[in-house]
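quick one before i forget lol
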Amino acid sequence: MTAMLTTSNAITDLDLAINGVFNAPRDFVFKAWTEPAHAMHWWAPRHFSVTACEIDLRPGGAWRARMESADWGALWIGGTYLEIAAPERLSFTFATEDWYGQPGPETLVSATFSDLGGLTLFAFHQGRFEDSDTRNGHEDGWVSAFDVLAGYLTTL
């Protein structure tokens, strides 16, 4: 099963917007985003595995995940939660770590979740990216990860 997704460049061509509908209740979708036991199943593009995930779900709390693939090796991502309004909204910073554990350029992510009577409408925004190639790479990664999430939600 896949989520129904639409993508667009929002605000400028250095921002990313993805909107879609998950065939699952909003509470389940929010838990999938905020509980490590769930995030381990989807928080990476297809053909990657999430091998570690830490979430300190509070404003100012850190999150960090390690994803691995045969082609790309291991990659750490992480950031800090800015806003948590369960189960409606999340906002956090996002950065990929370099080989020395230092975060690269930081973007801001916001995700909102609306109840559609057993379905969840979500709106995702990430920006501002340094260039359109980086934005496009993130778009491909998130769309793939959201597809994995849609499948995972059917198992809950």
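fyi Strands lie at 4-8, 15-22, 49-55, 62-69, 73-85, 89-96, 107-115, 120-127.
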